[in-house]
Design goal:
Length: 448
Amino acid sequence: MSFSMRFFIIGAFWAMAMLVAIPVSAAESKNSQSRNAAKESLGKFDALKRFSQVLDIVERYYVRDVSQGDLLNGAVKGMLQGLDPHSTFMNAEEYKEMQETTSGEFFGVGIEISMENGQVTVVTPIEDTPAFRAGIKSGDVIFSINGQPTQELSLQEVVSRIRGPKGSEVELVIIHNDVKTPQTVRIVREAIPLVSVKSKKLEDGYYWIRLTRFSEKTTEELKEALNAANKACKNAGGIKGIVLDLRNNPGGLLDQAVSVSDVFLDKGVIVSIKGRRGNAERVYEAKNQKDDLHVPMVVLINAGSASASEIVAGALRDQKRALTVGERSFGKGSVQNIIPLSDGSGLKLTVALYYTPNGSSIQAEGIVPDVDIPFEAPRADDNNGKEKTRIQVREQDLNRHLENDKDKKDARRKNGKDDAQEQLARDNQLRMALQMVKSLPKMQEIKN
């Protein structure tokens, strides 16, 4: 375009000059993009140069001799930890330990932890484990492990130090939310079995199904529990209702959350995954299966229900398949991929957010139950004057620690019915869930 022609165009549209940008030629646009790319490349080069300089200075002058491999591993860990609480680098040993967490068993104390603002926080203790019996609660902060402050460690390093040989002891300094002074707890490590499904009959035809985590066999264990329940109440007309308890379930494998949801759904979206780019989106849908269960359901959640638990609760809630009861869930709506590296190490990298069927993300928000019922701890003297272990409360998020009398000296073996009645007596949320699941058919008739 000639100078005179360009001057004419500017003059003709002078009145619009403040509203319309003057178009640039393709060559000018290409040159601008090239300059931006060059600047970006130069910026990356400067950053790598600065990293190389720092690496060289540390190798030469640090007070102790440190190998370049250790420095590079530390740099990678720091890079990932700066992204979000769930992305991390795992060396070969840590990667192997992570794999054991989702299959088989491992030796440790039995807690799920996360790193929040530089503090190692307990998401939830696993039921019937040493940590559970020692009174460690959701929301507790682990200050040190065997005398070493956790602020100096990555999340995977904390996990590695808490685990250890069966029968060995680990010393944890714990800070409870409701106690100002730190508490030293010594716990003997045990084999932590990954049995993830427990089932109890509450009344004839009504069952309490508790999922403690989502590991490789969770769906298989769930179907076994439902089949056993069907056989047990076959003469009474079969299963009439299910209370699916996801309280204090820290999550686990995505595919297990999808397949567990599919047991109770025969169609519709379960969850959708959306990454940084549009082509990273994936939608998981329920399939119509002959063993799908269609009885009335109530899902129990609380602030210890995280990740995969929230996928299940969100799917059943949004699909109008179940009534959700309890307290707002943890709010971990991100998806991590485990990426193995050639030397046996691995990355756990946040790659996407997940969305419930109605399209809402629960990241940092959580699942809000249909019926909000705070947990009420039983009185300390509700056992014929004998003190029961107080059910702990997480102050900020109302995350309550459940379950039972830990005084094994006075514990008695009870049959399933008595055990269920004892649980109902001390668990107001479970009592309410049972009443609601029994009332759902009548409530639906009134609605219709």
